[in-house]
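Problem: given the chain below (283 residues), write out its structure.
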Amino acid sequence: MIPKKFLKHTIIFSVAFLFSIFFILSSKSNAFADATLYFYPTTGGIVEKVGNQFTVDVMLNSPTDEITEVSFVVLFDPRYLQITEAIKNNSLFKTWSSTATDEVYWSIDNKNGVAFLRGFTQAGSGTLYKSKNGADVLARIKFKTLLGGKTELEWQINAPDTSHPYFVTKVMANKSPTTNVLNPKPTSITIQIGDPNSCTNCGNGTIDEGEECDTASDINTCDAGYTCSPNTCTCVKLPGTAIGIKDYIVAIGFFLIALGIFMILSRPIYIRKRKGTIIHVKR
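Solution.
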């Protein structure tokens, strides 16, 4: 027969154990309940040659909350990249374009290196977004490479100023009030263009010492007297000689003087017979 005291302790321990398991599972469930935005490929990649194009997907995942609005701002360096095509997934949200307001929904700025997208579905006016089988492609962006080297695709989380309140990266859930459930913050990816150990199409032109150089863009070349180092892809001073132009002139002058002295001192000696009249004097 099991002692009552032992049985009592066993029941208490079992209840505590089950409660702990429930708490852990609940915590994990909450950890995965937030919405996420991320680039795909998630680790970036390598583009073999300058001028080649590549595609990056912006992925959206919200397994728990119904989403009424999503927006993102992608930042890129326009010296290295230009957007040639951008496609949004029209099935995820109802509204993608500006209506009677001045709100911006879709914008690409290759001059400043900004891509912005905003999708919106009013609660009650259509089906709110919620992930069913994992993340969905929110947008697909195609880039063309302009310059060799390493560059990043980044996210702008907060609005740059009060005049652009919509230029933010967020995922708004259908709650009271609506809540930004984007967590964690999305991370940037690195794009390597060309061989990381070499630099192509280097030349002379308009960039100062130490700056990046590559003639894929006319403005990205080196000043006269500098060359593009294949090891660092930066402008470095051309190797000079020990004697400059002025020194050459002086050296040539000294050489000519020395040559003249040598020729004078080394000319042949001619032996001449004395010629003249002999005068006899009488004593």
